[in-house]
Amino acid sequence: MNVKEVEKLLKEVKTGQTSIEQALTILKDFPYTDLGFARIDNHREMRTGYPEIIYCAGKTVDQVREIFSVMAGKENNVIGTRANSEMYDAVKSILPDSVYYSMARIVSLQKETRNS
Question: Which stretches does DSSP call E strand in 19-111?
């Protein structure tokens, strides 16, 4: 979740488009999502200006795919470092917009561009 998304949610609550209960449900996972094998920082980009970075070495292909899936569902940009081509293929199978930089071993998913 980034600043723009929080502002949008607050405006929707103010205008009555979104109830307080709906907003609380959306904000329930605001600090992080615990997947059991990883804790995803859902508002890192809002705090730091940089997307969440997943250290893929030591994670299974399924774990990397699940992390990317959860983060993409929250419209977060994601970078996976130390990723192999098998991890990329798994991510690409569910998120066709993902990109793999083989020399750097990075999987990237850009859900939102920043306006500088």
Answer: 32-34, 39-41, 52-55, 78-81, 99-101, 106-109
